[in-house]
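Thread title: Can someone regenerate the structure for this chain?

I was given the following input by a collaborator and told the matching structure tokens would be attached. They weren't. Posting the sequence so someone can regenerate them.
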Amino acid sequence: MDTAIFFAVLLPILSILFLLTRGRRKSTKKQPPGSLGIPIIGQSIQFLRAMRSNTAEKWLEDRIRRYGPISKLNLFGTPTVFVNGPAANKFLLTSDSHTLSNQQPQSIQRILGYDNLLELSGDDHRRVRGAIVSFLKPEVLKKYVGKMDSEVKHHIETHWRNKQNVAVLPLMKNLTFDIICSLLFGMDRGPRRTKMIDGFQCMIEGMWSIPINLPFTRFHRSLRASTRVHSMVRELIQEKRLALKKGQVSPHQDLITCIISNGGNKGNEGVINQGEIEDNAIIVMIAGHDTSSVLITFFMRLLANDPIVYAKVVHEQEEIAKSKAPEDPLTWEDVAKMKYTWKAAMETLRMIPPVFGAFRRVLKDIEYGGYLIPKGWQLFWSMSSTHMDEHIFADPKKFDPARFDSQASIPPYSFVPFGGGIRICPGNEFARLETLIAIHYLVTQFGWKLCCKDDTFIRDPMPVPSQGLPIQLEPK
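Best answer:
Regenerated them for you:
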């Protein structure tokens, strides 16, 4: 009896001690190595300086050598953990919305808004993403290949024909912005487009910056431009609503009318509110304009430096051109034949991804790689960390489209220019279309030589080649 009483008393005590010691072990789990630096500023200035001097990859490689694949720092006013490798990419891209959210640094939030796909999680993300994908899915985009073809032809006739020298990046920004305005917003050419692009360029310059709103800062200038752009987009949305109500436009005329028709005017769980339409119109504008213009620009630079790949791309595109009457627009079926050209484009994305990296917000204390990452911190990952890893891609500095002959040979979550998982870029098919159509007309109508011996580039935050990549044109 005494023994039974003894164990009856002992067992609860042991249980309590076990729970206490388990909690103590959990609470003493180490944070990742590294320093948070000066409050608010942290390592932001060092990181931005490395971005603008094109040494950001080396800056991160130095961190990896010093601390390993997981380390803490402070970026843009928030304690941050940098994680590296395919496993880290998979963790970031596939974690559920109760563990990680897509919340961005303060600078991006305040400039782009709080209701876009970069911020939303869970049901809100699925609802808004569904509305956007309803326009950007392949079966819908098939209908707009001819319209995109027309924009590219007009651009070449206006800005390339009868020119001896051009700077590629500014022209590609004009082209992709015109395509965005035409297909996604239904905006005609004219002063309104010009005003929009001027404000847009100023707005995105401060997305990766220290969020200190003082008159002399880049962040302040971007905030002011953001106010102007949001106002213009808001006005455009109201015009679309009115035109739809009067039956003056088709519900699928462009992205905005499609979103409004699919959810923007319905009183159900699929409703997309005014702020969400506004913020996501701007996000789509960035994805379709800035990233694609960078891809096409560096694609042209790499082709100029590699005559073998260039010849293969030209051969593929000229075969397609020969199969058509001179004035016939490209079709969806034509674009589907551009297999080698798209492999070369993917190799460009591997070597020079337009987006350097991305952030996730930690929603609860988590353990990763043996370290504790506290709730409220952010995780940062970089595409280049796996894209340029020699253990994943042999001789990573070599431009070699043959890497993509069989994508099954590339380890999962190693090639991630469009992200992955449920958050894979919804506009990746749109980007493929505008890239391939633009390259088709450029390589079939022109040859080119690089005019600038300096082949470096900076990130601001997108890659910008020296002098905008000046080339000498050789009309065919």
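Residues 359 and 380 are 5 Å apart (CA to CA).
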